[in-house]
Amino acid sequence: MADIAIRIRGLGKRYRIGAREEQYDTLRDRIAAAAARPFRRLAPGGLAASTTIWALHDVTHDIRRGEVVGVIGGNGAGKSTLLKILSRITTPTEGEIEIHGRVGSLLEVGTGFHPDLTGRENIFLNGAILGMRKAEIERKFDDIVRFAEIGEFIDTPVKHYSSGMYVRLGFAVAAHMEPEILIVDEVLAVGDVHFQRKCLGKLDDVARSGRTVLFVSHNMAAVQRLCTSAMLLQRGNLVRVGDVRSTVAAYLGGEARGGFVAAARTADPQILSADLEDMAGRSLDNPSCSRPIVCRIAFSVPQRCPGLRLGIGVLSSDGVTLFTTNTADAGCSCPSGPGDFEARVTIPAHTLLAGDFHIAICLWNAGTILDLQEPALSFSVDAGDSTLYAESATRKGYVNVDCPWSVTVDTELPSLAISHL
Amino acid sequence: MSAHSTAVPVTYIRPGTRAMSSTVDEVWQARELLYFLVWRDIKVRYKQTALGVAWSVLQPFLTMVVFTIFFGRLARVPSDGVPYPLFSLAALVPWTYFSTAVSNGSSSLVGNQHLIAKVYFPRVLVPLNAVSMPVVDLAVSFGMLVILMAWYHVVPTFALLLLPLYVALAVVSAFAVTLWTSALTVRYRDARYVLPFLVQTWLFITPVAYPTSMVPERWRLLYALNPMATVVDGFRSSLLGTPASGAMAAVAVGTVIAALAAGIAYFRSVEGSIVDLA
Fold this sequence. Notes:
The complex is a heterodimer of chains A (421) and B (278).
Chain A: E1 4-16, H1 19-23, H2 27-40, E2 52-64, E3 68-72, H3 79-86, E4 94-100, E5 103-106, H4 119-129, H5 134-148, H6 163-175, E6 181-185, H7 193-208, E7 212-216, H8 220-226, E8 229-234, E9 237-242, H9 244-254, E10 260-261, E11 270-277, E12 293-301, E13 308-316, E14 321-326, E15 339-347, E16 355-365, E17 368-381, H10 415-420
Parallel strand pairs in A: 3-7, 3-8, 5-6, 6-7
Antiparallel strand pairs in A: 1-2, 1-4, 8-9, 10-11, 11-12, 12-15, 13-14, 13-16, 16-17
Helix pairs in contact in A: 4-5, 4-6, 5-6
Chain B: H1 2-7, E1 10-13, H2 20-29, H3 31-48, H4 54-74, H5 84-106, H6 108-111, H7 113-116, H8 125-151, H9 163-187, H10 191-204, H11 220-223, H12 227-240, H13 246-271, H14 274-277
């Protein structure tokens, strides 16, 4: 009983559909609507209840102190809504949450940074915004600067920082909050590999120090590495809670699909559709180990976007990324737009062994993820007539890598001599 | 174990408006953040503008020059026996504060949207910050007023001690208005087109260019429903020794308290959904 950190009961959040029009609600419209109201009741259906959607519905769950919970689910599953409610950024429509302890939430790195202020000034500003006391920031100041690795740039306005430095400083401040409960949203998607590793390390420390962490990520490997349990959300409902491995597998399996099509076109670069083909460009229904698998990706770049990269990751059925490949690796120049484009990447024959796989697709530039679909595609590979299965119907592992072998002779015993013995 | 669990604060998140007591407590807890937000705005302005501090002096000063030429010289508007430049500047200093605070404050929630969407803090700090920042300008432009008083050899009396109260009345008035307008600007985006017109009209119903003595006696208490009339008269009476009405001040304080209470109630009713609307 005393060990509960967060108690969620029947939590729901309802949004009105057409929220986009609501955004630009005007007094003029309001007055016009008020004038029209007596007549609207006469219209068939009137003000139907169907003009609302539940972004989150009837979520009940207890999170124990010291638990590191991964919150997973597809786009629009309600992850961000849950985080926003827990961070008190928005209020729920129904239900109740009881939180034991101070909450620190990190929904974005460097929230409230002002470009004209120096690194030093922004540390104080950002720290205060995240709920730290001035005395606390002063005490941790040197540690923050050291962690951020920005050295002599501390008195330079942050608008002159590289994006990497900016992110490092932002994370450094956040990493030095000491709340009992930490809520983290996808912040590891930014920064270089070295820094991502450092962030994960820091989160590891936080988790090990017995604090409660809620971690939302599309990065299944990070979720599996950090979390002790996971919550799977689907269209606003909590569909599964349990150990990380099985929940991640359930998520990836549940999302399984042969082809991907984006729900709607946006004004940002995005992945439009993806599917699997054979070498002749025919739809591939039963991928086999013995033949190449071509992944076709259609994407759109509405505005010019130099330095664009497109990549895929091949994941095992339990969510481990087996390998990734992208346009830059392959020395293939990715168009910077604007326009709609189609890319094809071929996974050579005799690469994927028989089993279930997922493909994640990512569109990014300069360290910023523009669109990430994980998983975009899910499929099963069968052995086919691959020579890899000539001797045995099963093989260990997920992929086959062509590794040259050689066997040399050190001392060869004359076989005749043996028979004469 | 139980001793440990009583040590950690327990927060409840429920639909609807939070209890008033918890809001007051939160604002008090976040007082350092308010300080940092004001500090940020001051720093940024002095870094971004070449003239920096001069702007806060220039605006009331140039308006004073225009008023002196057109209202003082050409229209011969009476000024309670005080030199017209001094008469108008004593009003323009608090008025400039008020109009700046209301303009900044009204767009403050929309302007800080990126912050509001990413981190929780008592939302009321945003308009509070917006009306606190121009107090710095008020202090700077007050220095110019003192210089002009010295120029005309005007020596203030003990009535000067009341001045901080009038400053406080101006700040609370601006805050009360801003609680309404900032929230309404989020809800209705065309509110920002109405606002400059509102502020301009407000200038005419405030005795900035003319003295309150020009308003017929029987309309004075109605006139006092505009608290800025009392603020302006108060600035003049405490610095220049012109008459000020206690009855008008009482009406003004009553109006401000009512507007503030209603503003807080309205702001609290919408603060939870600010993020969803914007």
